[in-house]
Write a structure and sequence with these properties.
Structural class: alpha+beta
Strand content: 15-25%
Shape: globular
Number of domains: 2
Radius of gyration: 15 Å
Strand order of the largest sheet: 3-2-5
Number of strands: 5
Number of helices: 5
Largest sheet: 3 strands, antiparallel
Distance between the termini: 48 Å
């Protein structure tokens, strides 16, 4: 089986190509077979007022493409610039690997994969901000 497999908890919601889908009472798995479908787990969604850090802002732009609120062609340069700016600050090997994966995904119009890689940087960014406040 190829494609994306979503594992959903009870009553979890997901946005697929602009339609909100809510799971039933039990855990379930959905296989998304359509290539390039726009998918966003609503539990992972960043609200506009939460896009208040560099990584969160870049994640939010990728999320806008997945939600259908922005065109991938219109946001490509904005995403790539944001990733480049992050790479100037997050210079460790793991961060560079994730940023390279995000760039590649953006160039291939794989915004779900880009968002996934970028979200992996959120805990690191949080630790950096916490260290800066200490």
């Amino acid at each position: 089986m190829s494609g994306l497999v979503l594992k959903l908890g009870p009553h979890e919601r997901v946005l697929i190509n602009g339609a909100v889908i809510e799971n039933g009472e039990r855990r379930s798995r959905l296989a998304i077979m359509t290539p390039n479908a726009n998918i966003l787990r609503l539990r992972d969604a960043i609200h506009p007022e939460e896009a208040n850090t560099p990584v969160r802002r870049v994640c939010y732009v990728a999320q806008l493409v997945l939600s259908g609120d922005a065109d991938s062609g219109d946001t490509r340069m904005q995403l790539l610039r944001g990733i480049e700016q992050l790479s100037q600050v997050l210079t460790d090997h793991d961060s560079r690997t994730l940023l390279a994966a995000a760039s590649k995904a953006v160039l291939e119009d794989q915004h779900y994969q880009a968002l996934k890689a970028l979200r992996s940087l959120l805990p690191r960014e949080e630790r950096l901000f916490a260290a800066g406040r200490a």
